[in-house]
Design goal:
mainly alpha, 5 helices, 82% helix
Length: 137
Amino acid sequence: MKLILAAWLTLVLAWMWDRFLFLLGPALGIHEKRRVILLVPIGEEVFKYGVSYCSGIFPPVLFAFFGIGEGIYESAHLKHHLDPVLILAGILPHTLFSIFYLFNIPVWLGLFLAIISHSIWNNLFFNFKNDCKRSTD
């Protein structure tokens, strides 16, 4: 139960961070690309690790459950039904972002590497999405 509550808290915090950036970002001069590629990963990784640390849950486990929640949200939002592919697409990258916590390195370095890998991942998808848009225009 603690794991589910921690994952839910992390998802809510990440969603609120994203909505804050989405709604107020333009007024603050934050464009979509900067929001998606840099600021969303910073918030998500800090929230995931922070909740993991405070709850005593092993980071890879919480990150995987976060990915399940994100996949369910994306399925409902984009497809209006549960899509196993989108759920898996949520689980795998978020679990991989937590791999750095398995090594004997300082926590701040693991967090930094998780943010960097998440930013690279989002950059790939942001550019892929825009390439697809341009090819259909």
